[in-house]
Amino acid sequence: MKPRGRPKKDRVVKGCPRVAQFSPRGKPGRPDETELNMDQFEAIRLTSVAGLSQKEAAVSMNISQPTFSRILKKAHKAMGEALIQGRIIRINSPAKSP
């Protein structure tokens, strides 16, 4: 069966994170996990760390500004929920195809 919708555009991510997981301290047992994908990680890095506007960051990732905005919104929601609920934040790097 043929995939539906528009094909996903390749995105530019400039470097993988040095740390792939953040764990809360002081919470007994094994806390739940929240996953960020590389698109979300890069969106946070470009806007919050590099200080780029959404438009500049979208150009850097080779995507449209509305797409960038959706990615950033999902990343902020995931990180906020993880912080409030004391979850582990795990950054998923894409599987490399041969």
- How large, in whole angstroms, is the Cα Rg? 15 Å
Biggest β-sheet strands, sense, barrel: 3 strands, mixed
What best-fitting shape do the alpha-carbon axes yield? globular
Physical arrangement of strands within the biggest beta sheet = 1-3-2
CATH architecture of the domain at 31-92: Orthogonal Bundle
Q: Quote the beta fraction.
A: 5-15%
Write the layout of secondary structure elements.
Blueprint: E1 21-22, E2 33-37, H1 38-49, H2 54-61, H3 65-85, E3 88-92
Parallel strand pairs: 2-3
Antiparallel strand pairs: 1-3
Description:
The chain is an alpha+beta fold and 98 residues long. It has a domain of 62 residues: Arc Repressor Mutant, subunit A (Orthogonal Bundle). The chain contains three helices and three strands; from the N terminus they run E-E-H-H-H-E. Strands 1-3-2 form a three-stranded mixed sheet. Helix 1 packs across helix 3 and helix 2 crosses helix 3. The longest helix is centred in the last third of the chain and has 21 residues. 20% of the residues are buried. The mean pLDDT is 85.
